[in-house]
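Reopening this ticket.

The earlier resolution said the output was attached, but the attachment link was broken on my side. Pasting everything inline this time so it's all in one place.
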Amino acid sequence: MRYTFDSKVTTATTIKRWLAKQGVSHRLFKKMLANHLLWLDGHRTGNTAIQAGQTVRFAIPTTMTVTPEKASLDVLYEDQNWLIINKPAHLTSVPGPHDPHHSLLNRIVWYLQQQKITEPQPAIITRLDRDTVGLVLAAKHPYAQGRFDQAHHATLKKEYLAVVAGHLSHATGTIEAPIGLGPDGIHRMVTENGQSAITKYQVLKEAVNTLVDVQLLTGRTHQIRVHFASLGHPLIGDSLYGQASPLIDHQALQATHLSFVDPFSEKRIQADLPIPDDFVNLLNQ
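Inline output:
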């Protein structure tokens, strides 16, 4: 089964220009054209002139780009275009060159295959670090990804929960410190020559350690981890920027809230997670 869509034309133009306004990329359109996956009022067509009132139908070309990995998914929200998934620790968002068959994206491909989708091509919209847990938004097909990137990325809202070592000086704050790649090519660090990075936080609970709600105003690699480590309050369990903990086998960081305006329905979609039990336990350790 392919993903197929109908679009009612409202102005005289060409099929390519009309679909570009709907979020179909030039690359995707070329694949549709090459695979004869365009119809005008029920008849196969190419990039022809169209008039208001006509209907363009198009289908997503099938191309297997990621190896499916048979594994369970914790799906919190699903419709015909989107998935919101609770990602576990120790799992990358997308496959890497050293492990191309094991990632959240590989698992989504297998999941969609079970829905009889032919050679699915999902895309991760909101990536998380390998050992960060929580909510990830995925587009089920390239058309959804294109529509989101075209006009709706600004509607995306994300919040995180983290447990940081010790007590912060202020109950609320904004960390504005540029981040760049460290000399070892692995660590990120606060540096004058880095990219602009801004993190807002609010303390939710204090004990021996502190639970904070975090919002990113920029999206740099390891941003939350680097910023709190730069204050002398690294995330508990973060062996890269602080130190490992016997009480948790990954950094205490969860993507806990995710919402966005669906470009298809124009409705806001939202998912939330509770505070993990192990985060609560870390506050007093």
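Reporter confirms the inline version is readable. DSSP finds six helices and 18 strands in the chain. The longest helix spans residues 142-152.
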